Amino acid sequence: MKRVLVFIICAGFVIEKDIPNIESVITLSDGLLVQWSWKGNADSIDGFKIKVWIVESQEQGYFNLVNGDQIPGLTLNHNALEKFDQEKLPKSKPRIIVISDSEAREVKIDDIKYNKLHEIRILTYDGREDGPLSGPTRIRLIKPDEAINVIAAQRQNNDCVATVATNLTIYGETYFHLRNIYL
């Protein structure tokens, strides 16, 4: 009598289709609408987790000539203190939003803080473990004063800078005001 031993080894390999991809971030009057795509099998997961970090940044201001004019203007630079990195996560503790629907492809995120840099990533989860994180998207909603409307600066790849031009009046003097946001 012959005996046959059969070993079954199950291993999960991360392939690109298993990782959600952030397609768009839309600004709303009271937050953000994040939309993503995912090519995996909806029956294999319980849903999605959206992680939102606040990334530390530094503001530096100085007077200079704006757009080559001979009028001094104020330039404010916002620089992220943590580099934009596909692999490395921000240092702060993330806010986690759990979506218990494997068919969902968007979520509204409220309580977004103005003038703060946010990093957003998405992952799948099931009863046993979390899947790999999506690539990062960074966004800052800017609402400095009544002179300009809300402006969103968003970054998904290597370089992004948003520049906002407006006027600033101090003690009756009008200054040109540039705000550079490096994400």
At a glance:
The protein is an all-beta fold and 183 residues long. The protein is built from no helices and 12 strands. It has a domain of 126 residues: Immunoglobulins (Immunoglobulin-like, Sandwich).
Description:
The chain has 183 residues and is mainly β. The protein has a domain at 21-146: Immunoglobulins (Immunoglobulin-like), CATH 2.60.40.10. The protein is built from no helices and 12 strands. The chain has strands spanning 21-28, 31-37, 47-55, 57-65, 72-80, 95-99, 106-110, 117-125, 137-142, 151-155, 161-170, 173-182. The strands form 3 sheets. The chain has a 5-stranded antiparallel β-sheet with strand order 6-3-8-9-10, with no helix packed on it. Strands 4-5-12-11 form a 4-stranded mixed β-sheet, with no helix packed on it. The radius of gyration is 22 Å and the shape is elongated. The model is unreliable at 4-16 and 146-150 (pLDDT under 50).
Question: Which labels suit this protein?
Answer:
50% strand, four-stranded mixed β-sheet, mainly beta, 183 residues, Immunoglobulin-like, five-stranded antiparallel β-sheet, elongated
